[in-house]
């Protein structure tokens, strides 16, 4: 408990320093959170260029509204909530099918190096099908699934980022798993 309070105090001190105009505090906030935000944005948008754009927008908005951060949650939770909203807005402005096709085309095979060319091709095809099935999930299921499984956020933090209850978030993740599992079974049937 003391450690968590100590971390909260350091975070609060850092935010307050940034609010007081300390450029190093802004730099530190950026360096502590940019990489994880990039991974989240990349998972949601499907490519690096859009993810970089989204991360920059996250920090522009966050730093403009830093005085509205109320310390009820962790700064990372607040920033990821902003990131998810930005990514959703970017996705709404583009045709979904083009985005998914581009993400699938960039997906490298996940096969080990010592596998045969046939096994590598099969792994690549499974990865392509997985990304396609993931892309067909409704955003309300796909986003919590990615935050929980790809980013490793716990259930409570995933719920906070997506502005949903823990129960709803759990149900959405479970539903996404079931759809993806059913799809995987279809791909492997002879």
CATH architecture of one domain: Orthogonal Bundle
Regions with little confidence, pLDDT below 50 for 5+ residues = 99-111
> What is the helix fraction of residues, given as a range?
over 70%
Per DSSP, the total helix count is 9
Strand-residue fraction?
under 5%
Notes on the structure:
This protein has 190 residues and is mainly alpha-helical. It has a domain at 1-94: Rna Polymerase Sigma Factor, Chain: A, CATH 1.10.1740.10. 78% of the residues lie in helices and 0% in strands. The protein has nine helices and no strands. Helix 2 packs across helix 3 (48-64) and helix 7 (139-150) packs across helix 9 (166-188). The radius of gyration is 19 Å and the shape is elongated. It starts with a helix and ends with a helix. Mean pLDDT is 81; it is low at 99-111.
Give short descriptive properties of this protein:
0% strand; mainly alpha; 190 residues; elongated; Rna Polymerase Sigma Factor, Chain: A
Would you kindly provide a brief summary of this structure?
The chain is mainly α.
Annotate the secondary structure layout.
Elements: H1 2-19, H2 23-45, H3 48-64, H4 75-92, H5 96-106, H6 117-136, H7 139-150, H8 155-161, H9 166-188
Helix pairs in contact: 1-2, 2-3, 2-4, 3-4, 4-8, 5-6, 6-9, 7-9, 8-9
